[in-house]
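Q: Give me the 3D complex with zinc ion.
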Amino acid sequence: MEMIFDSHLHFFTREVIRFYSQQSPEFSQLKDPTDCASDKLGIFPPPENPQELAKLWVKELDRNKVSRAILFGSILGEQASIEKAIKLFPNRFVGFQLVDPTDPAASDIVEDIVSKKLSGLLLFPALHHFFPDDPACVRLYELARKFKLIVFVHIGELKILIQEKLGSASPCIQEFGDGQRLGRILRKFPEVSFIVPHFGCGQLDGLIEPAREFRNLYLDTSSSNSWLQHNSKFSNLKELFENVLEEKAFGIERLLFGTDSTVFPRGWRKDIYEIQRKALDDLGVTSTDVSLLLYKNLEKLVTRF
Ligand SMILES: [Zn+2]
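A: Here is the predicted complex, encoded as structure tokens.
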């Protein structure tokens, strides 16, 4: 049986939907706009408590024969919700939490995340307006090294689809998602494992040299990888896979399968899995290698310490 460990699953609690709907010009006047915003988005409003949402996700993962997933706390301060989900299903979920390094309290927040037994930090430079090698981030990488946390950094273009759909202005400044400046960090923190999502969104150039040398960078394969359609030297997913599989900095052992699943009723994004699986089959990737990408690489990464 093929085992799957999804490296990229957003845990969209009620709090997350409320946060985004309160920013929307259409719903910001309402006391709790979550239900109205969910209706507009065509999604089921998340249940009242995170445990119920975790149960829905486990059912959905079971239905799709997915063994495990990394759950993302994708707005600030969601670590308590993620903690509840991973406590209830310790064999199914591993937790990562979004942190804003420019927050003066960021170090305390990281310690709180550690105390709640989460395993990784999510950094979104374009969203919170910092470069990946800013001094504020360096402090967080030091904490990641100390507490053995994995660090996920979104480089390249960042789109927050839920914000777009709710008509909110994007807070993102894309220039901050600078891969070159993450490259310097790979050299400075060889003991820390970094993940960049969506194969690096076409911004891998500054990362390849240090990643060849230190082997501390992983690529998640998640989402539809729509960036391939513009400004990309790869014409399709198969070509992209072929390139990263041959690249010494990556290869099969540095790729982590992910979907970027978010909401119900859509649930787990089997479509994304099928498209990636087909690209790998077309390339003739062996089943042993496929199992590294789908499960074993990530399992090794999260149980390393
Ligand atoms: Zn995502």
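A quick observation: The chain has a mean pLDDT of 95.
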